[in-house]
Amino acid sequence: MSIPDRFRQQCRLLRIVTLVVFWGLFLLLALGAGGLPWFPSRADGDLGTRLLLMLVRLLPGLGYLWALWAVQRALGDLAAGRLFHATLARALRHVGIGVLAGALLSVFAVTNLSRWILGSHGSVLYFDLSGIVLGVVGAALMLLAQVIDRARALQAELDEIL
What we know:
This protein has about 160 residues and is an all-alpha fold. The protein is built from 4 helices and no strands. The protein has helices at about 5-30, 45-80, 85-120, 130-160. It is elongated and about 65 Å long.
């Protein structure tokens, strides 16, 4: 089945937009380590402690950047006319992994590791609604990728029979 030219053009355009967003966010995260306003305050301790906190706070962003990279790669594959089902399954799986990882790191790791580094106390979970929703969406995307993989396998089996 041929992918219409208009769809392929839209994929190319969205891939460019996704790459701009990816590199913009990557730059923002990288500059954060250089001391922009979201750098941990001096009240958080010495330089080593502040740098460790910065690294912990960057962790979710790495998962989200992975998801954006997977999206732009899938758009590139679709724009090039590569197999739709294989591209879609891989993209859903990788986006799901990135979003789930970012959300889990945001909800569990950042809060608890920051608290541990600073030696403070508090609850184990940070109930960030967006983080929890993103985690569920990431897990669902991974399951949807399995459905597409199964459908592709069944299609191949049917094609062999016919």
